Every structure is written in C-alpha cells, then in structure tokens.
Amino acid sequence: MNWVKSIQETIDYIENHIQDDLTIDFLAKRVFSSQFYFQKVFTMLCDCTVSEYIRNRRMTLSGYDVVDTDINILDIAVKYGYETNESFTRAFTRFHGITPSDARKNHSNLNAFSRIIVKSNLSGGKAFMSDFSERGYVVKETGAVYYTLDMDKTLKWFTEILGWYGQIEARDENGNGDYGCVNNIPIEIEALHIAPFTGIHMFRGEPQQIMVGFMLVQGVEQLYQYVKKNGWNQITEVVTEPWGTKSCCITTIDGSVLKFFE
Fold first, then answer.
1. How do the domains of the chain map onto residue ranges?
2. Which of 26-40, 108-122, 151-165 has the lowest average pLDDT?
3. Bridging pattern class, strands 211-218 and 257-261
4. What is the pTM for the complete model shown?
5. Rounded distance, CA 197 to CA 219, Å?
6. CB 246 within 8 Å of CB 262
7. Which of 42, 80, 190, 197 is most buried when burial is the number of CB atoms within 10 A of its CB?
8. Which of 91, 89, 108 is nearest to 99 (CA)?
9. What is the C-alpha to C-alpha distance for residues 191 and 170, in angstroms, rounded to an integer?
10. Cα–Cα distance, 60 to 12 (Å, whole number)
11. Sheet holding 246-251, edge to edge
C-alpha cells in the first residue's frame, strides 16, 4: 500500500465530508487497512490523530461560520456534529479560548488548524535522519529469519547495539514474544513501502549458533565503529574480500552470526 497516497485521500475525503458522521473504522476500511495501522500511520504522517484532525478542522470551519455569517449558533453546532449548544460551546471555547457568542459579538480573530498536505508534513523524518547521521551506516538489503528464546532481550540488543528499530507483534499467554521484527528504519516508515524491507524476522525458538543473515550495507566501517562504541566486542575487524568487498561479522547476544558486507 502507498500510505502517503492513502492518507492524503483520507484527508481529502474528510474535508469533503466534514459535516458527516466520520468514524475511524469507516475511514480505515476505505483504504483497506486495520484501524490499528491506519491510526498509527495517520498520526506519524500528520502529527495528530485522526480524531484530532477531524475535531480541529470542524472547530476551524465553525469559527469562520460564527464570525463571518449570521447563521444561528445552534445550527452551526448541529452542522458540525454537536447535538447541543452547550457541548459545542465547550469544544469551541477549548479550541479558540472564547465562547461562540463572544467571538461573534467582538468579531474576534480565532485559532485555525490548516488542512494538511501529507508530503509537506513529513517533517518527522528530520529526527530519523539525525539518527542515521549519528549511526553512519545504512542497511540496503536483508530479510533474515532469526530465532530467539528471549525476544525482549534480543530486541533490546538490536536497538542498543546496532541502533535499529523494532517491535514484538505477537506474544503467548505468558507474555513471551512469539514473533517480531527488527528493522534498519523505523517500523512506521517501513509500513509506507517507500523502501524494500531491510529488517529481520524474529521467531521464538532455539537460537542458531551459525551465520543466519547476510546484509548489504553502505558504511561497513562506520557500522564497526558504531558497534564498538556501544560496547559490543563480538565483531570481527573489517576485512577486504578477494573480490574487493569489505565485510565484518557480528555475533549477537544469542550467539548467532550476522555478516555485513559493502
């Protein structure tokens, strides 16, 4: 799924149906997504939740109606989904800092929440880029399967030693991780499908004391320095292979081996 396109289409739909009963379930189904991932990606791209966006846009537009028209305030309240004048007044005052009647009387300048254009709102990437800059290396290709008996501990190792991101997707009845992913880029960015999957699938099982993954990276020497700086010594020196490729191997907290090459 192209999430940027889907979320922008959702915003356009909200704007065109701002007076309708808009539920998260309905909006998620429109883009063929679960509510969980829909809300997660919307928040990441827009810096606000779906509900906040709808509420803030309704308050902005109702403010224009209050100040610039003679429409009865109760009719404006109903127009934007509020059943009573009291509930509308509370929401209006919370957003604008003034009651609707006072705003109309004084022709006040009210707060405004602008319509979001997703591509211009991807400012959150700056924080991720600073992480990448500090780390000094980027994984370009991977997709290994990794077994561990303590997924939480392994996930912590990947985040603290390699600087990766991750989450545990499924747990058993005792809270032990059954399946999770660790990724070179934030899970939310990976979900946008703007880059190939560059992570590792984790499953619960006996760790394999062998080489379990080969990963193409850019900046293998920076990778070596980053891992050593984080206090992990089970990494080989960077060597130049006979065919010219630079590589190094890392033995993980589970005793499995990951090979990185450039």
1. 3-106, 136-261
2. 108-122
3. parallel
4. 0.52
5. 18
6. yes
7. 42
8. 89
9. 17
10. 16
11. 138-141, 211-218, 257-261, 246-251, 239-240
Q: Is the pLDDT of residue 190 over 70?
A: no
Q: What confidence tier does 252 reach under pLDDT thresholds 50, 70, 90?
A: very high
Q: Which CATH superfamily is domain 3-106 in?
A: Homeodomain-like (1.10.10.60)
For residue 125, what pLDDT is reported?
47
Calculate mean pLDDT across residues 215-221: 88
Could you check whether 3-106 and 136-261 share the same CATH topology?
A: no
Q: Which long-range contacts (CB under 8 A, 24 or more apart) does 46-55 make?
A: 46/7, 46/11, 46/116, 46/118, 46/121, 47/121, 47/123, 47/124, 50/10, 50/24, 51/24, 53/11, 53/14, 53/113, 53/116, 54/14, 54/18, 54/22, 55/91, 55/95
Measuring CA to CA, how many Å separate 237 from each of 159, 211, 220? 21, 16, 10
**Cβ atoms 168, 180 nearer than 8 A:** yes
- Is 203 buried (19+), middle (13-18) or exposed (0-12) by CB count in 10 A? middle
β-strands 239-240, 246-251 pairing:
antiparallel
* Phi/psi-derived region of residue 184, left when phi > 0, alpha when psi is between -120 and 50, beta in every other case: alpha
Q: What is the mean pLDDT of residues 181-186?
A: 81
For 227, the 3-state DSSP assignment is: helix
Q: Do 234 and 163 meet the contact criterion of CB atoms below 8 Å apart?
A: no
Residue 149 and residue 207 in contact, taking contact as beta carbons nearer than 8 Å: yes
Q: Note the CATH number of domain 136-261.
A: 3.30.1900.10
Determine contact, residues 219/138, Cβ cutoff 8 Å: yes
